Amino acid sequence: MSTGTTTGVASGRGTTLPWAIADSWTMTRRELAHWARQPVQVLVGLVFPVMLLVMFGYLIGGGKGIEGDYVDFLVPGMLALTMAFGLESTMLAVTQDLNKGVIDRFRAMPMTNGAVLVGRSVADMLQSAAALAVMAGVGYALGWRVHGSVGAVVGAFGLLLLFRFAMLWMGIWLAMLAGRPELVQAVQILVWPVGFLSNAFTVPSTMPGWLGAVVEWNPMSATASSVRFLFGNPGGADEVALALAWPVGLVAVFFPLAVRRFAALSR
Question: How far is CA 158 from the centre of its chain?
Fold first, then answer.
């Protein structure tokens, strides 16, 4: 007779929704407690996108081929870029837990399957919402204004968070696949081109034809164009359906991959 137990088996936990919610909230509070112990890391995550916004808006400049105020064009693109760049912090946190054996200990406890992943995702989404609020506030201070209806503005922020949610699950899967924090740097090499090969800073019509085509097929470009459209900012296009389809498709692929990979960790 086996004396060991796996996650969610020891005391019948993990079989009901209340236990699942309680365990997930426990894991979420654990992630939030890290913010108090590592405030510098949180601040860097909030300040870095602001530095990019100021750099591109004032130091580097731009606006070629853009009708209207460049800051109004730039800020929505930077909001989308901020959601993409959050992938690295997700990967780093997951790989650190893996290497410290934290996740193995959690899996040996009477805890609902997947509560660790849910807690990670909820904490990351809260941080992403805070990052959006900071960026929007800085953008407003720089002169950015929205001209869409309240419903359209809420929809724009919803699209941004949906894109972040998709990137989050991609990051969780990649982290468990990589297994080590050092390999996060390799992923960063891929994330930066994806972020910059987009319409965050300029319109594809000013680029060479082949490059413009790549930019237009970038999932982040669809999000940036759609939020500009909903905000009533220059360079917007009604690509809301595409901005919804890309993240939903990414979640449909990477969510089950992440869950399956997590379940395989105990084998």
Answer: 12
